[in-house]
Design brief:
single chain; 12 helices; 0% strand; globular; NAD; EC 7.1.1.2; transmembrane helix; NADH_UbQ_OxRdtase_su1_CS
Length: 306
Amino acid sequence: MILGGVVSVVSMIMVLLGVAYFVIIERKGLSVLQRRHGPNKPTLVGLLLPVADGVKLLSKEWVVPVAANQIVFLVGPIFFFFSYSMWLVYPVSGPVLYFKLSVLYFLCMASVKVFGVIMCGWSSNCQYGLLGAMRAAAQSVSYEVGFSTLLFCPLLYMGSFELFEVRMDGGFYVISCVEVFLMWFVSALAETNRTPFDFVEGESELVSGYMVEYGAFGFTLLVLAEYGSIMFMSVLCVALFLSVGSWVWLFGDGLFLAGAVLVSYLFIVVRGTLPRYRYDKLMDLCWKVVLPLSVGFFMLSMVVGL
């Protein structure tokens, strides 16, 4: 029991370090895609920039607006940090927790973020924050329906709700259900509020959306939770659609991690190449395209799986 707790804490710390350097990798990747200089200070090519940013943010005073609901304003970012509990079911060899319904656990933990969004935006007592929270909540709730339905499509072939068993099944299902993979990736972009669906932020109308009044430690929690969700979505994508199964025993977890890194880079490439979508078209895409097609693919997967 104690060993499992120590392993969990160490895993969380490693994920936080990975998220910190994922931010700098994204900034450098965007600079390459846009043919400009990225962050190159301090130190050699900016390798210690995440450390400098962390020290700067954590050393600043956390200012709470006078008109804000102070208790809710301070508690809101904690709900985002619950997203790191998804890493307890990380499908690596010798997982910390092993139970049969880890996929359902992931869906539950991913849904908690909506409460944090509403609490942060409403408690700020700011029009920009409230409108950004309403956008984010409606977007997340809408796409969770199609996202969950598409998630169950490959699981019907595998016959398991445990991520480690799904990974070890090694079906490489992206070949047989490439359309499900593409729709699932689009839904993952909308679920994590990433470009081209980053309507939580809008420089012309919402500034930074629900996090506009946050700074210092609160802003750090929000950013870490956002990028942590992106990294776990990449891991889940590889486990569901790109897993190589028995090859894992030959190459260890390195091949699995390499696939997750490549998928996370795909998030960066999409941000650097596609313009922001329009919000009404995003909702039309969800309810008129993604949801009907996801239900159809789910029924087809049931027939094929049986």
